Amino acid sequence: MPNNPDQPTLLYKLYCGLTSVAAPLAWRTVRKKLQTAGVPETRQQERLGHATQTRPDGQLIWFHAASVGETLSVISLIKRLGERLPKAEFLITSGTPTSAALIEKRMPPRARHQYPPLDTAGPVKRFLDHWRPDAGIFVESEIWPRLIIEASRREVLLALLNARLSDRSVEGWKKRPKTARFILDHFTLFLTQNDKTAANLIDMGARPDRVQPGTNLKAMSDPLPVDRTTLSDIRAQIADRPVWIASSTHAGEEETVLAAHAKLLQRWPDLLLLLIPRHPERRSEVADLLESAGQSAAFRTKGDKIAPQTQVYVADTLGETGTWYALCPIVFLGGSLKEIGGHNPFEPAQAGAAVITGPGYFNFAETFAPLIESGGATEVNSAPQLADAVANWVSDDTALDKARAGAKSCVNNQKSALDDVINTLCDTLNLA
């Protein structure tokens, strides 16, 4: 049955009015970003609600994901859900060109991708008029009020999956309790990453009987793809040298990584660091840091080979991280030495790696907790601690194997929860 929410609050009406006024500016900003990324003009129009594909016949289940990390988990879930529902069709919306390109490469059966409409009246109406989804599943914290309200009014059953809210966001919504309850009441189901988020949603006004603590959906993502040709080529270049990885590093973190590497080179002069910046466009900044550190480097985008004197190989490309993880079982995961929130540790863990992290992994706290408890991950706070953690696993195969086994076991335990997620979605959203 459709929800029967209260009348729109004054704040929601104000939001609708302001976004309508700001729509032209928002469109120019979004369009410029898409143009810069090389998105064709026809596909740019999807942000205005103009569909570029036809709606398939039958049941259509709509997933909305924020960006790359959420997209990976959605793809895996759709594959499994498609097996459960062989006649269902799927629509995936995501806002970034990077996530769109990723989906195109790994498109699940009976699925298609569109950019989501701007959260204003015209685009939302055109989007819903065309696609007419039977159910809408929003992933993580993608809360677009008008899109949610209008979909619910059309009797689209909605779920918020893998729900995660920052403390700041929760406090902000608590200051607007009527509007929070009004928006949240349009969801039929909330599946959260942890108990804390479940409690926060209830405090914000979600109906307790609709909130269920779940698991981190990203743990259920398929392993990252590996290019076997590239893997073989890079392995040949590395030969028998010891190697470690610093992945998804952000500005302000490479200095710590390179300082740790300098210390490690004193013990293992032939040690190779494979450095994967989170944003490859920072390559010139990274090059300056390497020059300042006095470490010789090769760059993937330049076609450089790994020579015996190469101390750092900079993998400044997109879409090859799975190949790099297959090279080495020791991975430092960035976004954690600064207050950035961390990145998904299940990606290296699925590849068989033990993980090192800084303390700032608050976006993945519920994910790292069992990994650290199992010994599959360890936390460091400084360059000396990072060097010591890498040295421990480089020098002690038994310790490394034990850590890798702990990480793999933790991932496998999380994956077993996928069937529970699918059963809950099917039962609550009438998908069976």
From TrEMBL:
<feature type="active site" description="Proton acceptor">
    <location>
        <position position="70"/>
    </location>
</feature>
<keyword id="KW-1003">Cell membrane</keyword>
<comment type="similarity">
    <text>Belongs to the glycosyltransferase group 1 family. Glycosyltransferase 30 subfamily.</text>
</comment>
<dbReference type="GO" id="GO:0009244">
    <property type="term" value="P:lipopolysaccharide core region biosynthetic process"/>
</dbReference>
<dbReference type="InterPro" id="IPR039901">
    <property type="entry name" value="Kdotransferase"/>
</dbReference>
<feature type="domain" description="3-deoxy-D-manno-octulosonic-acid transferase N-terminal">
    <location>
        <begin position="43"/>
        <end position="219"/>
    </location>
</feature>
<dbReference type="GO" id="GO:0005886">
    <property type="term" value="C:plasma membrane"/>
</dbReference>
<keyword id="KW-0448">Lipopolysaccharide biosynthesis</keyword>
<comment type="pathway">
    <text>Bacterial outer membrane biogenesis; LPS core biosynthesis.</text>
</comment>
<dbReference type="InterPro" id="IPR038107">
    <property type="entry name" value="Glycos_transf_N_sf"/>
</dbReference>
<protein>
    <recommendedName>
        <fullName>3-deoxy-D-manno-octulosonic acid transferase</fullName>
        <ecNumber>2.4.99.12</ecNumber>
    </recommendedName>
</protein>
<feature type="site" description="Transition state stabilizer">
    <location>
        <position position="140"/>
    </location>
</feature>
<dbReference type="Pfam" id="PF04413">
    <property type="entry name" value="Glycos_transf_N"/>
</dbReference>
<keyword id="KW-0472">Membrane</keyword>
<dbReference type="InterPro" id="IPR007507">
    <property type="entry name" value="Glycos_transf_N"/>
</dbReference>
<dbReference type="GO" id="GO:0043842">
    <property type="term" value="F:Kdo transferase activity"/>
</dbReference>
<feature type="site" description="Transition state stabilizer">
    <location>
        <position position="218"/>
    </location>
</feature>
<keyword id="KW-0808">Transferase</keyword>
<dbReference type="GO" id="GO:0009245">
    <property type="term" value="P:lipid A biosynthetic process"/>
</dbReference>
<comment type="function">
    <text>Involved in lipopolysaccharide (LPS) biosynthesis. Catalyzes the transfer of 3-deoxy-D-manno-octulosonate (Kdo) residue(s) from CMP-Kdo to lipid IV(A), the tetraacyldisaccharide-1,4'-bisphosphate precursor of lipid A.</text>
</comment>
<keyword id="KW-0328">Glycosyltransferase</keyword>
